[in-house]
Amino acid sequence: MVLETDESDGSFLKFHPDVAVVTNIDNDHLGAYGDKFSNLVGAFAQFSQQCAERSGLIVGCGDDREVARIVQALPRHVLYGQEASNQVQMCYDVRNNTAIVAREGMEQPFAMERGDEKSYLNAVAACLACEAAGLPFADTLPILKGFPGMERRMQLLTDHDGTVVLTDHADHPTEIRATLQAVSVRYPGRPLTLVLQPHRFSRVSTCLEEYGPALVGVSRIVLLDIFPAGETAERPKELNKMLRESVKAAVGGSLAPQMPVHQMLDVLRVSATPDDVVLFMGPGDVNKLGLRFCGLLTSDNTVQCETAASLEGRIQQEND
After folding, report:
1. Per-residue pLDDT at 308
2. pLDDT value at residue 300
3. Contact indicator for 42, 7 with CB cutoff of 8 Å
4. Where in the chain is the domain with CATH 3.90.190.20?
């Protein structure tokens, strides 16, 4: 049995795996851990110990300081990552979007048709897990060359007359930054419009000042209201305003003004060029907006609203 689990509600502690892969520990989902990062780290340590108690192998990304500290303390472990201190080192070449995997003095070239930095790291981790199950590492790595990717992870919704529309599940600023870097590798030099729907009031409150820096370099950013995902907040409007101000301070004129969703979608359609990449991002219902936008982009059934020129005028007014 192979499964994916995470720390969002603590339920990953119900599992006692024979092989465990721990990729990173982020300052996220702290509400389930008494709002303390140390408690979250402790939960990952417990999860890893539960694997060790079964004489299992812990595969950890040594680039993450907390992961490295936890994993190194266990009897059966292997650390992978980009830093030279890892037992298995992945050297990523962003120019060619290829990698070299170095281990015990041996180097193995590796290329993925739809790869990016994080995909290569995840591929190494997956192959190490397969190795623990008895499959030779050198044999499994090439199999992932044609890995098509996952649903809602830089998933292509349409490529209409050269305008590429993607959807992605990223929510935490660290994940957002990594995804944007991957998009820039897959579509180098192309203007990117990001429609971002932040996820959960608790995450935004914890990471408020991290969103803006993660978005620097994006050509145009449409920031939607926070998707609550069942949470409540005392002052949701104030939190949305604070996030918007923080993002604007970091990205300046790249942040588009607020407008009703139907207007925003049609403005994006009007302004789309054959070189544009439009990315709808977030775990909430923003994917539905991406599908609606594809419908507008590929048909003539549009609503009457502002033109792209008026949008640029509003952006200029907000920045004056």
Report:
1. 39
2. 54
3. no
4. 155-319
Task: Give the DSSP letter of residue 223.
Answer: E
pLDDT in tens, 184-240: 988 999 999 999 999 999 999 999 999 999 999 999 999 999 999 999 999 999 999
Average pLDDT over residues 54-69: 97
Phi and psi, residue 72, nearest 5°: -60, -20
**What pLDDT shows up at residue 316?**
45
CB-based contacts of 83, cutoff 8 Å, min separation 6: 62, 63, 89
Residues of the chain with CATH 3.40.1190.10: 11-146
Give, rounded to a whole angstrom, the gap between the first and last alpha carbons of the chain: 58
Which class is 11-146 in CATH? Answer: alpha beta
Angstrom distance (rounded) from CA 146 to CA 150:
12
**pLDDT at position 294, please?**
94
How many angstroms separate the CA atoms of 138 and 135, rounded? 9
Q: How buried is residue 274: exposed, middle or buried, by Cβ count under 10 Å (0-12/13-18/19+)?
A: exposed
SS3 98: strand
Q: Is the pLDDT of residue 250 over 50?
A: yes
**Assigned CATH for 155-319:** 3.90.190.20
Q: What is the pTM of this model?
A: 0.76
